[in-house]
Amino acid sequence: MANMASKGSTDRFVRHGGHAPIDLAQLATNTLGNRELQQEVLKLFLARSKTLISELSAADDRQHQADLVHSLKGSARGIGALRLADVCDTVEEELREGSSPAFLTLVSLVGETNDFIRELIEG
């Protein structure tokens, strides 16, 4: 099956610094180029990230917060959202070390990634 987006169709998805929130080549590799599987994992990420962010905002224990961010990091890597995964890694480390985590950056990037996913799915 074809990849989710061809080179020409990805041009409209370029974001900050010339990079899309999701590495479409990585997504294609992770899903063996199966477009239906790509759509499915992206939809799963939308639902999972929403749940994790909601749980994160309600959690008051730093260990639990770190575990939630760790889960989000794995999900992000699975779809090729490598910049988000890197931010998750930093926030998780900050939580485990007891320093102030960059929650606003994390939430903003999740929103940007999810907007990008919706464009891919609907576009």
Automatic annotation (TrEMBL):
Residues recorded as bearing Phosphohistidine in the entry: 70
Sequence ranges assigned to domain HPt in this UniProt record: 30-123
Coiled coil: none
Superkingdom of source: Bacteria
UniProt keyword annotations, A-Z: Phosphoprotein, Two-component regulatory system
UniProt KW Phosphoprotein keyword: yes
Pfam families given in the database record: Hpt (PF01627)
Designated name of the protein: Hpt domain-containing protein
